[in-house]
Amino acid sequence: SAPLPTPVFSTHNRALSAPLAPPPLGPAPGSLQLPSIGSAAHEQGRCKPCSFFHTKGCDIGPTCSFCHLCGADERKHRRKEKVEQRQGQRDARKAKAAGAVY
Predict the structure, then answer these.
(1) Which of these, 53, 74, 83, 97, is most buried using a 10 Å CB contact count?
(2) Nearest to 38 by CA among 53, 51, 50, 28
(3) What pLDDT does 88 receive?
(4) Does an H or E element contain 27, and which?
(5) What is the Cα–Cα distance from 41 to 47, expressed in whole angstroms?
(6) Is residue 48 left, alpha or beta, with left meaning phi > 0 and alpha meaning psi from -120 to 50?
(7) Rounded to whole angstroms, how far apart are CA atoms 50 and 58?
(8) What are φ and ψ of residue 75, in 5° steps?
């Protein structure tokens, strides 16, 4: 069979003559595996939940920097954990200060 013809690009538009970027290594933003850019760190637990995704819906969509994979109560759950952790640290400091002799 004959070789395929080489596409001809206009020389006045450099964007068309530039080589194409390779395909992404992971899932594309907007896919089921990566519904938003902020969902990329979900598996490592380093994402920040989107406040709007489960309520009124996220207007930003796939380019949102917050996670769309987290559950509806994840933000509240993380806030509660953070408050409990701070309370524990505060209690430990108070106990240490109460036991210190000057």
Answers:
(1) 53
(2) 50
(3) 95
(4) none
(5) 5
(6) beta
(7) 8
(8) -65, -45
What are φ and ψ of residue 43, in 5° steps? -60, -30
**Is the distance from CB of 30 to CB of 62 less than 8 angstroms?**
yes
Positive or negative torsion for Cα 34, 36, 41, 45: negative
Name the token pair of 88.
Answer: 């524990």
Residues in the chain: 102
Q: What residues have CB less than 8 Å from 30, skipping those under 6 apart?
A: 36, 61, 62
Helices (H) and strands (E) in the chain, counts: 2, 0
Backbone angles phi, psi at 40, to 5 degrees: -60, -35
DSSP strand E in 1-102: where?
Answer: none
Tokens of 30: 């907007």
Residue-wise pLDDT for 6-20, tens only, equals 665 555 555 555 677
